[in-house]
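Methods: example folding runs. The two proteins below were folded one after another, and each record is reproduced exactly as written to the output file, sequence line first and structure-token line second.
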Amino acid sequence: MDPVPVFRHGVVAALSSVGYLVEEPADAATWLNERPGAMILLTLRSAEDLDQVIALCRVRPRPLIVALPFGEAPSLGVRAMRAGARSVVAHTATVPALQRAVAATLDGEAVMPADVADLLVAGRGGRPPRRSVLSKEQIAWLRRLSDGWTVARLATEAGYSERAMYRLLKTLYQQIGADSRFEAMLLAHEEGWFQT
């Protein structure tokens, strides 16, 4: 499951070449109900994708989910594992790495990049923050960034210099356990902060 057809076709070719039957379902939940024990490879680009991992893990028997986080931040992989993914493979993984991860997952193993495992072992990365951690102003900043505002525009509106705004945002990201602006916005969506 990936929104980019070229990527999907590449994965199909890579896995078909080593003997796997690969399909591209339009509706993953329905497809899984018709194929108990099947595996889903799911690209993670947004909080909605993490919600889909959680929803798919409710299907019985529980499917094997290999999450393909898009981007460099390992905490997205950690959140995927905590949401129920069996394995995590970088979206940019080589064909042999993807093939090995699928084979290992089918053999009952969990596969993940070392930095994801390190964060899981340390108990960090992707741990949902408490709702009370952020002020209304900080949530408003994240909402505006999510709406496409630049840091410069946000700084002007908030009455800070651009450099000060960058420092405030960096502190905010650290406060909620995010490694980047993208992760901070994902967490904000996951926590429902933009809906209040």
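Second run, written to the same file directly after the first:
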Amino acid sequence: MSKPLVVAIDGPSGSGKSSTSRGVADRLSLAYLDTGAMYRAMTWALLERGVDLEDPRAIAAAAGDVRLTSGTDPLDPTIHVDGTDVAEPIRSSEVTSAVSLVAAVPEVRDMLVDLQRETIAQSAGIVVEGRDIGSTVAPDAPVKIYLVADAAARAARRAAETGEADTAATELALARRDEIDSTRAASPLAKAEGAVVVDGTHLTLEEVIDTIVGIVDAR
């Protein structure tokens, strides 16, 4: 039995991973998994439960009671916590500012990586986006992409998504998250061995999708 095609797309916040990954999955008729949404959903659930997110032990203790379910349709990705649709609330500023704290807890990462690998194993082919897909979740993925963009472009994109007028503040927030994500002990943000760097700073979304589809086709 052949292994499913796994396209691992990693990169920092605001680099365009989500739109790009959905576009690539749709173009290639593959499933899609947003692992960042899973960490956001966990963060939302812990905030709802009143867990102290400055306390890694409290996070680890509470995380095991949270049930996450991720849909894999690139045209209609879904994320549920204990059966509740949380696609909108996980994009709140409160979740955004706290998600790196939750994602840095090894017990949370272990739990969610297991869920991610289960989803990959159940697919016929899938595009998976995140920060540690090529390095940790699916190190044997035949296609690994590290998607980047310069700081100004990333801040402009994120501000457009959130409606934030102050792009300078958004850029600072992204830099802070990059620092946390790239220096954490558990599966830090890093370019995986064998990953192809795609710089989307001066490319349109369609051009980035075309580039990655071309890499997949040439594998």
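Comment on the second run: The longest helix spans residues 167-183.
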